[in-house]
């Protein structure tokens, strides 16, 4: 049984594949996007329960996509997952439910996913 459907938006193929494999192993279904435009197309036609969003990507950045996600899918939790902690101070990042610095261990990302989905089920998110 699938726990939830998660959109992973990450331009690095190896990282995206690793996150998806780890999330799949934890019982989640994943949908992959290698850039913001691809993510927006997916969100226009499919429902997801949570979004993991990288910031620095070619074309439209994650910071440009985040307000669009917030407007189009206001109840969908978003985790900003980036290597750049400086973006935490950008007020647009405050639209995300969590801000996580990338780590070689995907365990903290999976814990964050589980916590956000629990909060969503219990009605603690928007």
What does this entry show, briefly?
By secondary structure, the chain is an alpha/beta fold. The protein is 39% helix and 18% strand. The protein has one domain: Rossmann fold (3-Layer(aba) Sandwich), CATH 3.40.50.
Taken in chain order, the helices and strands follow as EHEHEHEEH
What ranges have pLDDT less than 50 throughout 5 or more consecutive residues? none
CATH class: Alpha Beta
Measured between the Cα atoms of the first and last residue, the distance is: 26 Å
Largest sheet entry: 5 strands, parallel
Total number of β-strand segments?
5
- Give the total of domains: 1
The Rg value, from CA coordinates, equals 13 Å
Approximately how much helix is present in the residues? 25-40%
| Architecture (CATH level 2) name | 3-Layer(aba) Sandwich
User: DSSP strand (E) fraction?
Assistant: 15-25%
Global mean pLDDT: 90
CATH fold type? Rossmann fold
Strand order of the largest sheet: 2-1-3-4-5
Gross morphology: globular
How does the helix and strand content classify structurally? alpha/beta
CATH superfamily: Response regulator
Our count of helices gives 4
What do you see in this structure?
There is one protein chain. With 126 residues, this protein is of the alpha/beta class. The chain has one domain (5-121): 3-Layer(aba) Sandwich (Rossmann fold), CATH 3.40.50. The protein is 39% helix and 18% strand. The chain contains four helices and five strands, in the order E-H-E-H-E-H-E-E-H. It has a five-stranded parallel sheet. Helix 3 (62-72) links the parallel strand 3 (50-53) and strand 4. Helix 2 packs parallel to helix 3.
């Amino acid at each position: 049984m699938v726990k939830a459907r998660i959109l992973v938006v990450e331009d690095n193929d190896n990282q995206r594949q690793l996150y998806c494999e780890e999330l799949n192993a934890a019982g989640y279904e994943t949908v992959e996007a290698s850039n913001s435009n691809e993510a927006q197309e997916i969100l226009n036609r499919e429902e997801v329960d949570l979004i993991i969003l990288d910031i620095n990507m070619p074309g439209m950045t994650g910071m440009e996509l985040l307000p669009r996600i917030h407007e189009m899918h206001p109840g969908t939790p978003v985790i900003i997952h980036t290597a750049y902690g400086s973006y935490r101070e950008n007020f647009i990042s405050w639209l995300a439910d969590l801000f996580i610095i990338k780590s070689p261990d995907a365990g903290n990302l999976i814990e964050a996913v589980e916590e956000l989905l629990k909060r969503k089920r219990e009605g603690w998110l928007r």
